[in-house]
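Exercise 7.
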Amino acid sequence: MVYGRKGWIMALLLLALAGCAVQPLPAPEPLSAPSAPAAAPTVPAQAPAKTVSQPRVAIVVSMDTPAYTDVAAQLEHRLGKRATRYLLDGTTRVTLERSAPEQIVAIGLEAALLAKAMALRDTTVVFCQVFNHVEHGLVAPQQHGVAVFPSFHKTFATWRALAPALREVLVFTGPGFERVLTHAAAAASQHGILLTHRSVSSDKEFLYQYKRMSEQADGLWLLPDNRILSRATIQEIMSFSLRNGKQVAVFSEQLLRLGGLFSAISSPAEIAAKVVQRLDASDSRSDDAGLLFLEQAVVRINPVIAQRLHLTIPEPLLSHVAE
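Solution. The predicted structure, written as tokens, is:
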């Protein structure tokens, strides 16, 4: 993920036998030489099977950062020679219009916005690594997405295993995430956790609302929404949480050093697999929010914070302890 106000934060598908009637013989005549045997019917040669060419894929990367390039590398490995990678710059649109790929994978918001603006006819677009797709209207008949979130179930299963007494978790985002987070709330509920979501309009409102509501909750699920996050806000939120014994699940390993209990991030390999799945089934619907959700999560646990919060890391999670 790239942090900062505008960026600091952050695959699929007769031969009929003809019989001859025997005519009755006429009156006997002198025998003649036997006729040559009838030639076997000619079987028409079959045309060689046509090779079905796979759609050409343009992989457009918003910027040269591991969160994007790692996914691009996985896609190139899976798609092979049918894929061409482009780093977004001032010439990318002209290049795409000239090459006219059948499919475009847009990695990051800027690439997704370019693909949307181009609106190439008969071109399927799949976007990924985009947090706020709702505000920008990225889901359309020819445009689908892969969620940026790691598996909700894995995230809350990990949290429940770490903190058996966990009851309520707060989560804050900018507008537009109500439908997506209903899936998260359902996953949390399966693990006995109440997920309370509030939409806020700024980092200051986020900080104010979190401090106001934190007394009722056991922890905070921090999401990479750069509309409501800044470096200072993150530092203040983490500091406040430590002082008040609040558990915080974060979206990057780097934030563990600021006091996160554990991080849950998505796997570039799984994101690429889901993108290819979406490319191979581009006419099918995903969920009601237009996204294909991830089923895995890469988890790292901060043992120092676990100890400070009087939590015991269960044996199945010891392999996830961060160094």
